[in-house]
Amino acid sequence: MFLNLARLLSNGMEIKERRWKVPSLFWLPLFAFGALLFIVDVFQTQYNINPVRLQGEEVVFDQDSLKGFLIKTPGCRIPYMDPFDHTVKEFIHKEKKPVCNGGIPALFDSNLTSIYLLNSSLANYTDQNVSVLKCCYQPFHRQEPSEDDNDNKIQFDEKCIPFNITATITDEFIKVVCHINRAIVYTDFFSFVPIKTKKVKFETKPVNILIIGLDAVSRLNFHRQMPKTSEYLKNISSVELLGYNKVGDNTFPNLMPVLTGLSETELQKVCWNADNNHRFDNCPFIWKEYKSKGFVTSFGEDSSWMGIFNYMRKGFHEQPTDYMWGAFNRISENAIGNSHNMNVEECVGARQVYKVFLDYIKKFVTKMDLEERPYFSFYWGASLSHDYLNKPHLGDKHYYKFFRKLKENGHLDNTITIFMSDHGIRWGDIRQTYQGQMEERLPFVFIVLPEWYKGQYQNAYNNLLRNTRRLTTPYDLHETLKDFLNPAILHEALEKRYQDSPRGYSLFCEIPANRTCKIADIASHWCTCQQSVEVEKNSSLVIEAANFAVDYMNQQLEGYAQCSELTMNNITDARVMTHNEDILGGNEIKDFMIILETVPGNGVFEVTLRNTIGFNKTNQFEVMGTISRLNLYGKQSACITDFHLKLYCYCRSLLDLGN
C-alpha cells in the first residue's frame, strides 16, 4: 500500500535533542509550519496557471472567465483539476533513489571528445598504483538485421584499443574494459557524436528542432513531480498546451500521429505491414522531410528493449536517422544494467540511465551547434517514468539543470524545443479514480520558441497562445512540425489555411472553438471533453453493458486456444457521459465508462460502451476505442505475442499449474 502523506511528513522530520526543554504544545505550531514548508518544497502545492497575453494585445483569458475549466469552448469543456485533490493525494509519496552498481562509483567519465580516469574512484577498484590498471576501448555499431531478425543487432570491432588514463575518441559508441592481472575489474560504455554528414547551405535561416519525451507523465503529474523543471520552463516563456488529449492507449498510437500524421490503423495500411516484414523503413516519418532539406537527423530512446518500434515489432532494416542512440542503450543495459525495477533497468554501471541519456542529448546539441549543423532530433525517455507515478520527482533536479544549461549556453537561441509526454500513468490505484482516469488522457506538452521567432512570426505565435486553451492532439503537433520546416507559410493568411475542419491543425493557426473530440478524431473512450456523472454500478443496464465488454474481449481472443475464457467478477465503477453532438440533440445514445474485473487473473479493465436503443427497443452496445488494462498483466499473457491481446489473455497453462 502507498504511504499516506501524514506518514511521509512524520518520517521526513528529524528533531535534534536540545539542552533545554519546552512544553510539548510549543512544538505544535512549529511542526505544522514545518509540514507546510515540506509540502510546498517537495510537491509545490501552489499551482497556478498564468493568464495568457498575446503579443501587443489584451488578455485573452484568465481564471475568472474560465470558472473552473481548463478548456471552456462551445465544442469542449475540460475541468480544472487540483494536482493534490483529496481523491489522489493518498497515492503521492516520495520514491527512493536507486543505488547504482552497489554504490561503487564509475572509474571513467567522458566529455565531448574523450574518456578520462576519475582519480577519486580508483581506490574502489585497486589499492595499488594506477599503473597496474590495463584498459582498452572497443568501438561498436548497429548492424542491419537480416530479413527475419529483430532490429537488435550489434557489431563490435575486432580490436580493443589500449589506452592509459585518457583517450581521444573518434568513434560513435565504445565499450571500455579494464584489467588488473588479467582479471576484468571494470566495464563501461560511452557514446559520442562524430560528424557524419556534409554541411549544407540554406537559403534562409533554419531553426533546429529538439523534441524530448518523458513517457507516461500526465500534465498534472508533471507539475506535482517536477516543480523545479516546471517553474524553469515557465520562466523561459514556454507555451503549455492545457488541452492536449491523447488519441490512443499507449505510446505507439500516440506518437505515430506526431511523427507521421497517421493513426495506427492507417500506418498498418500505408507502410507497416506483412509486405515489408512489419518494418517501418517505408513509413512517412517527419524526419525524412527534414533530412531531404539538409537537416541532420537524430532519434534516440532509453529502455529500448521495449522501444517505440521494437516492442513486439521488427523495427527498421536500415538506420532511419543519421544518429540512432537506441543501439547503444540496448547493449549497455544488457551488459551492465542494474537496479532492475518493473520493466526497466534504472542504471547502467554506476549511472542512472536517464542521466546517461540526457548527457548524450547535450553532447549532440553542443556538437551540432559547434559545427553549425541544423538538426531535427526526437528523443524518448522511459526509464525514469514508465512504471511509477512518483518516480519522475527523482529526475526533477536533473531535468531542470539540463534545460538551464541548454539555455545558458545559447543552445536554445536558434532551437524550437518541445518537451512532452504521450499519456499519463496507465495503471495503479490512481487510475481507478475519476481524476486519475482524466489525467491519463491529458499528457503534458511544452513548446519553447526562440525570442526572435516569436517576433518574426507574431500572428502565428499569437495563435499558438490562443490554442493553449483549445482541444489539441498529436495530429496538431505533426502539422506544426511541418510548419517549422516551411516557416514562410507563417506569413500568409493563417485563418484561411483550413477551409474545412481537418483532423489536424497547425498550432500556428487558430483552432476553431467548436472543435469536438469527434471532429478531432478522438475516440469517445479517450475524450476528456465529455461531462460525466456516476451511475449505479449494479443497475441492470450497467451489468448488461459490462457483460457485453467481457464477451467482446473473449471474441478478440478467439483462435487463441492458449488463452482462458474470461468471465466478469466485479464492477467497481460506472459513469455515463454526455456529448453535445449526440445526446443533447435528443438521440437515445449514452456512453458508459465502466471499470470491471475479470477472472481468471483478476484483470482490471476500463471500457467505454455506446448504448443505443434498437428498433425492437432492445439495448445495443458498441465498444468505443480500445479497452484499457488498469493493472499489470506480468507473465499472465506470456503464451501470446500479439501486443494488443496481451492485455486480455490469461494463459491456460497457469490454470493447469494451479495459479
Descriptive tags:
six-stranded antiparallel sheet; Alkaline Phosphatase, subunit A; alpha+beta; 17 helices; Nuclear Transport Factor 2, Chain: A; globular; 659 residues
Please tell me about this protein's structure.
With 659 residues, this protein is of the alpha+beta class. It is globular, with a radius of gyration of 26 Å. It folds into three domains: 5-91, no CATH class; 208-523, Alkaline Phosphatase, subunit A; 531-656, Nuclear Transport Factor 2, Chain: A, CATH 3.10.450.10. The longest helix has 18 residues, at 353-370. It is 25% helix and 22% strand. It starts with a helix and ends with a helix. 41% of the residues are buried. The strands form seven sheets. The chain has a seven-stranded mixed β-sheet with strand order 14-22-21-13-20-15-16, sandwiched between helices. Strands 23, 24, 25, 26, 27 and 28 form a six-stranded antiparallel β-sheet that branches. Keywords: Membrane, Transmembrane, Transmembrane helix.
Task: Give the distance, in angstroms, between the N- and C-terminal Cα atoms.
Answer: 23 Å
Name the overall outline. Answer: globular
Percentage of residues in DSSP E strands? 15-25%
Count every helix, treating DSSP H or I runs of 4 or more residues as helices: 17
Query: Main sheet?
Result: 7 strands, mixed
What is the CATH top level name of the largest domain? Alpha Beta
The average pLDDT is: 88
**Which value, in Å, is the CA radius of gyration?**
26 Å
Q: Kindly report the name of the CATH homologous superfamily of the largest domain.
A: Alkaline Phosphatase, subunit A
CATH architecture of the largest domain: 3-Layer(aba) Sandwich
Query: How many beta-strand elements?
Result: 28
User: What is the CATH topology assignment of the largest domain?
Assistant: Alkaline Phosphatase, subunit A
The secondary-structure class comes to alpha+beta
Strand arrangement within the widest β-sheet reads 14-22-21-13-20-15-16
Helix content: 25-40%
Spans where pLDDT lies below 50 across 5 or more residues: 1-30, 32-46, 580-587
How many separate domains make up the residues? 3
Transmembrane segments: 25-43
Keywords: Membrane, Transmembrane, Transmembrane helix
Pfam families: DUF229 (PF02995)
Protein name: DUF229 domain containing protein
